[in-house]
Amino acid sequence: MRRIWTKINSGNNIWRVGLTTIAFVTFLRLIGSLQFLEWTIFDTFLRLRPEESIDERILIVGINENDINKIHDYPIPDRNIAALLNKLKTYQPAVIGLDIIRDLPKEPGHTELVKTFQKIKNLIAVEKIIPDRSGSTFNPPPSLPQEQIGFTDAVIDTDGKQRRSLLATSNLQGEWKLSFTLKLAEAYLKTKSIALDNVNGDPYGMRFNATKLPRFQSNSGGYIQADAGGSQILINFRNRRKPFHLVSLTDVQSGKINPDWIRGKIVLIGMTSPSVKDYVNSSAINSENAALIYGVEVQAHIVSQLVSAVLDHRPMIDVWADGWEYLWIIGWGILGLSLGRLIRNPLKMLLYITIATICLILICYGLIIIGWWVPIVPAFFTLVFNGVGLAAFYRYDEALRYRIQDRQLIIDQIFDTIHSHPLQTLNIILREVQSDESLSPQEFVAKLQQLNQELRDVYDLVKREAVSELDNFYFQQAQRLDLSQPLDEILFEVYNEIIERESSYFDNIKHKVLKFEAMDERNLAIEQKRSLCSFLEEALRNVKKYAHGTTRLEVICTQEHGKNVIRVADNGLKIETMADLSSHSGFGTKLAQNLAKQLGGEFKRYPHLPKGMVCQLTWSANKLWFWRF
């Protein structure tokens, strides 16, 4: 348990970095830095949804360039507007929406238009109640009652695109007003015996029977501190190139239309002429040029959204509460952190992060289809930063810790040597000098010579164990070896390098038993692979140093009984006692013991009867998941 707790505690820095990444991405979201990306992906998802059917309940009468050329006048005179309204009335539409400004007379035919307004009770006209940047507004037709007036004020985001619809708000006089689109939907649904009502507990909330309109809040979806004044909703544009039937003024006047497109339906009249430039910018609409969406088309989308939600249960765009959104973001960040800690192989890491990213995109896309907008950009950033970036940091941190442990072993070895010999000798000299029976000059000189030799031995130890170890094959070949290869192939390269470098010794060995087979390396870090290379190199070097007269060499790198094994056995120097065995144990042994501890395995050096020595490292790849944290 102590070893497990040490392993867990050693990963605290990684967790801190991972949580800091999540906090940083969350901070970026809170200050609105990710808002534009969220809007872009939201629009893209809406545009990429499956194609929907035409909404047969809505007809757009677009006054186009040909209509203007035939009339030879613009704005369209009141007489032509009156004639159009009277013609439409004969087809008995449920409601007519006139999305054309008529606050001032446009002769000829103003008197005729006033009479038409008074005669058609299911007509809704427009006004503008909120001043734009220039302070401009426009009034409704003066001959229409307020019940037949709706405002057309739109809420435009900072990127110039419309994603929200303002359904109700107060004018400059503090009067509560309903929008043009809401008035049209209300009039049509009233023919189905469905009335507009308030929502209990929300003075700005609205509903049609059981269908509640999800009200836009200042932090809804990807928005941060947006103006949520009045009653707003997110627009769920109908995804189709031509979502509504569209005819011209000339088509209506000539009777070249299907009466079923009008009878009992919603008819919107607006300008669809490029010269008028009544455009709305929205990249969420599936059209040939999203920047050229006529205003009357956007009004039709909003009316269709309201009516379809009530009658067809088509989803509105809703969002999660803020708390759930941030739990969602943190959850993806923790997933990325977990992948970064669990997966060692860089290519596998990229593969798993790619799979997780695709899953994130598909989930968010699927939720959009059913009407839920959840944050994808911060979730993506926490996933990728923690998965890829933190994995690289973890590898560096892990490598640094392993090297620090190796250096600590060198320091401990040097300290033990100094403590056991020079300091002991110096203590004896001091004790003898301070005693009554002082040393003779010859004895004193002999002791000093012994101390001098022991200090030189410490120097030799530092030079041999530290400098030569740092300059051995492990560090020379670390950059040359491709550590992404299978471990058995890497170890075989190490073996060949040693055999070639020490050919004068190893060529004299008559019998060599080699076994390099696939090993389970699922949980091996890059630094641990390097350490295993160092272990094999050290074991082969020891054969040369100590196993004089070796005629048989075994190098086994494989799996045995579910464990990975690296074993080097010779039949050289005969080991008589454990004291003889310990005499060959030094810094390399401590490094091997430290590596075995890191791997949760076991290092052994024991006699190879009847003659020789075995150097063996075993470890299991099957670790509990929390071992890596």
The largest sheet has its strands arranged as 4-3-2-12-1-11
Number of helices: 20
Distance between the termini: 14 Å
Number of domains: 3
Provide the gyration radius in Å: 42 Å
If you average the pLDDT, what whole number results? Answer: 84
| Overall spatial form | elongated
Percentage of β-strand residues? 15-25%
Class inferred from helices and paired strands = alpha/beta
Indicate the low-confidence ranges by residue numbers: 1-10, 466-479, 624-629
> Biggest sheet: strands, sense, closure?
6 strands, parallel
Count of beta strands: 21
Helix content: 40-55%
Give a written overview of the molecule:
- The chain has 629 residues and is α/β, with parallel strands linked by helices.
- It has three domains: 2-31 and 320-397; 53-153 and 173-191 and 237-317, no CATH class; 472-628, Histidine kinase-like ATPase, C-terminal domain (Heat Shock Protein 90).
- Helices cover 48% and strands 16% of the residues.
- It contains 20 helices and 21 strands.
- The strands form six sheets. It has a six-stranded parallel β-sheet. The chain has a five-stranded mixed β-sheet with strand order 17-18-19-21-20.
- α2 (12-30) packs antiparallel against α12, α11 packs antiparallel against α12 and α18 (526-546) runs antiparallel to α20.
- The radius of gyration is 42 Å and the shape is elongated.
- It starts with a helix and ends in a 10-residue tail after the last strand.
